[in-house]
């Protein structure tokens, strides 16, 4: 089996944009050429990779799995091309990132970027969402990767991906009965806690904050241990977690938008290269899960 990079890039862009039209524009190809690449890729792996939801194309289970490999293959391919083509870029960049992105993706991105651009000095600074936003405002970082609410996305923000917020609990959590909801939060420097308290207040549900942790790992561990319920990204869920059993009693939480925000515009050539690397590391789209503990399945 041979998986060519052009077909993998077409798959990645179709999933990122939700359709063939914009993907074809980005690739400077016709829509029929992109569709042919996708059909050829499906033929080679022997599975359907995309499914249509209304007017949007979403990845199937096999599509998500292949996308994870495609991200790594394309990043390595592009870094190798850049390296041996020779990069004359120089300068320094300070990248701010929230804990979830810093701990899962920044290390690999930074390593590839340093290898491809040895003349650029890259520093990474991790913090909470509000802290990272503040650093971008004051110029303490040059670029910031962070989640924002839909009404906080700026016209010059560069979109990366979106994720749905959900109230999450441990699968084997004990029923709460009439007790206040034990709330696990990311602390006062993350806007998730404000959203959680607003939703619970509007629903007339009593709650008490039982733990604050600035790290994604800390919040996930507390939820998995059954210590409490947390409002967090659906993409953060682990196999021992599910949607909170009381989710139907509150309004649907919002979607968060991950963006790159620049402290200064226009971007330097070095910053443009880093943004391209960041946008090439977009995680897979997360399928809808309508019931607590529901598995992601291919229809």
UniProtKB/TrEMBL annotation:
Keyword presence, Transcription: yes
Name of the featured protein: LysR family transcriptional regulator
InterPro entries membership: LTTR, LysR_HTH_N, LysR_subst-bd, WH-like_DNA-bd_sf, WH_DNA-bd_sf
Family: Belongs to the LysR transcriptional regulatory family.
Assigned keywords, A-Z: DNA-binding, Transcription, Transcription regulation
PANTHER family: HTH-TYPE TRANSCRIPTIONAL REGULATOR LRHA-RELATED, TRANSCRIPTIONAL REGULATOR
Annotated source species: Spiribacter salinus
HTH lysR-type domain: residues covered: 3-60
GO molecular function, one term: DNA binding
């Amino acid at each position: 089996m041979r998986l060519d990079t052009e077909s993998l890039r077409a798959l990645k862009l179709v999933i990122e944009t939700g359709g063939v039209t914009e993907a074809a524009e980005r690739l400077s190809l016709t829509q029929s050429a992109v569709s042919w690449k996708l059909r050829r890729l499906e033929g080679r792996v022997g599975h359907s990779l995309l499914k249509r939801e209304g007017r949007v194309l979403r990845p199937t289970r096999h599509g998500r799995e292949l996308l994870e490999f495609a991200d790594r293959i394309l990043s390595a391919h592009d870094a190798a091309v850049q390296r041996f083509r020779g990069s004359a870029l120089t300068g320094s960049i300070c990248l701010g990132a929230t804990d979830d992105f810093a701990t899962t993706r920044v290390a690999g991105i930074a390593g590839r970027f340093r290898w491809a651009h040895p003349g650029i000095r890259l520093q990474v600074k991790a913090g909470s969402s509000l802290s990272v936003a503040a650093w971008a405002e004051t110029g303490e970082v040059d670029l910031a990767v962070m989640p924002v609410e839909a009404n906080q996305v700026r016209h010059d923000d560069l979109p990366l991906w979106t994720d749905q917020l959900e109230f999450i609990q441990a699968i084997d959590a004990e029923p709460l009965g009439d007790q206040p909801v034990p709330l696990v939060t990311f602390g006062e420097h993350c806007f998730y806690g404000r959203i959680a308290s607003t939703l619970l207040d509007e629903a007339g549900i009593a709650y008490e904050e039982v733990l604050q942790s600035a790290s994604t790992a800390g919040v996930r561990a507390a939820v998995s241990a059954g210590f409490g319920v947390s409002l967090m990204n659906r993409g953060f869920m682990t196999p021992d977690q599910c949607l909170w059993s009381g989710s139907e009693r509150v309004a649907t939480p919002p979607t968060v938008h991950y963006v790159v925000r620049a402290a200064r515009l226009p971007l330097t050539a070095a910053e443009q290269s880093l943004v391209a690397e960041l946008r090439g590391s977009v995680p897979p789209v997360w399928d809808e899960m309508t019931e607590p503990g529901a598995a992601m399945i291919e229809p």
